[in-house]
Amino acid sequence: MAKIVLVETCSHTPFLWTDPMLWNEIRRLRPNSEKNPWTTDEENVQQYARAQAAFGVLRDKLEAAKPDVILVFGDDQIEQFDFSLFPPFAIFAGENFEGYKVFPRTGIVPGQRGDWVEKTPETWAKVNGHPELAKHLLKNLVKNEFDVSFMLEEHNKEHGVGHAFLRPMSYILPKYDVPILPFYINCFYGPQPTANRVYQIGRSVRAIIEDFDKDLRVAVLGSGGLWHTPGNPEGWLNEDFDSGVLDNIQSGDAKGLADHFDRESENPPEAYGNGKWVDGGTGMYLGLGSGTGETRNWVAAASMVDGIPGTVVDYIPVYASPCGVSFAYWENP
Prior knowledge:
The chain is an alpha/beta fold. It contains ten helices and ten strands.
């Protein structure tokens, strides 16, 4: 039978792939609340080094686990889906897919588009999927009354599968040599699923995987978060929210994590701003969106190891973004 051998979570802010000596220059070029303290170049270099060390821990854990496939919970930001069709949940069930390893466009300011990056072996990844496991998940999730959409190929082949699924792999799976199964959760654009719905689907995913009649070692990654509202002139780093996330990770309380997220969704603090910063521009607010909404991917991953305390590798408040950067894992769950 299939077995979950490792669960990991990590942030994927572009700052972690950008020279830290440029962080303050980027901060000056885009909106950032005055409530976020300034950090020196030296402090930024130290934060970058801590993030690299944390990615190294996740890379070592992944290598030791020897997975046959990596299930990645991630979100799409107009990379494969758009407002002509945007599902709350979707699974990629094709044989293989492609996409940019880190950045699809040039420019040092995250979120401000330059020219398309040339597709070379250094910038563009070709990755195997796992259609057999994907179809097993799809069939049984629908049977369990979760209405999940599916993809058999990329909708936007020019862009490729998005950053949530491939960018972290440049550090933790640099050869891209293990099949990846993308599991999409709409985190960014309202109305998104509640964290408690994500918790429910994550628990179902674990049961379905463990019922898969194949000798398969499965690793799981929750990609994105924690608190960040990129481009929001009012947005400051809500470290209290992030602290609540990590407290629940360390206590093994995935349900508590989902409840924590949904409580914030009902009464978003001043740090969240307003308008498009809470609903992605759809005008349909139903929970924390923007970058903070990616914390749903942590909820999904944690729900697969509910009741088991996780190890937080590090938490780094990157005020230049601002973004709460963190990393965690569960071994031998």
